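Case study.
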Amino acid sequence: MSLTLRYGDRAVTPLAGETVLNALLRAGIDVPFSCKAGACHTCLSLCIEGNVPEKAQRGLAAHLLEKRYFLPCKCKAVSDMSIAPALESDLVDPALFDEPVAAATCAAASAELPYPEPDPELWAELEDGKTVRRVLEDFYERVYADPLLSPFFGRVTKDRVTDKQYSFMKQCVTGEKVYFGDRPRNAHHWMIISEALFEHRQALMLQALQAQKLSPGQISRWVRIEEHFRPDMVKTEVWPRRVGEEEIFIEGFASETLMDATVCDHCGAEIAAGTTVAYHRRLGQVSCRVCASGMPHTASA
Ligand code: FES
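After joint prediction, the assembly is written out as follows.
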């Protein structure tokens, strides 16, 4: 029996095993998201009608549970659901009204941080980078096996991310200009990274540094470099990319008429050249006509 997700005036039938978030995105519905792993709460939504599996509410505050909020990225529908975006007025815990509110960590308007003071002796001590590569290989093994961090790397291979981070660390530690990618602010601009998630990442890095037998002194010099970029990564909302003075938003959907035929990123059906498709700006995924309609595929579709 197929289920129906209602979102405003749209109706979407989730595919077998598909999360509610992916079903809505497949149909071109602009739901905010970041980690897709239940860590950032960016996709938080309201269930107006239907049953919410317990897993989709894990970690939510009591006042949100009471109102039937849930995380679509952790939800596989078990009944028809009627869903709405989160209301800002619901998000503040009424219990906090008497407490002073902490200042938000938001530096969206700030420029990227410059590179930290280099430490070329550290590079030499780490066998001219050989130990750095081993640490990073060990670290990304841990990251790709980690349920909270791995979803952020869904579209990039472990080797590629290790190579990139190696060049970045080489530039930070030696001061030589060898890295040409985005610095942390732009590279992570769409990721909602809480202090707790950053700490979790740092704990995995510490495990890798210790496993690769860096001395406590070397570990603290390595960590100094990573901590330098913490303010460029921890945030409570998606930041635009900054190119010079310009800010570029790459969230949400845009439409484009295809010059060449392609395949649907969700079901693999061919999409003919000349078709106008909606694509997600950040994910770059396109939906065929049937997936975008939110309706199930039939044998003839
Ligand atoms: Fe759902 Fe991060 S996108 S919790």
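Observations recorded in class. The longest helix spans residues 158-174. The two ends are 18 Å apart (CA to CA). We will return to this complex in the next lecture.
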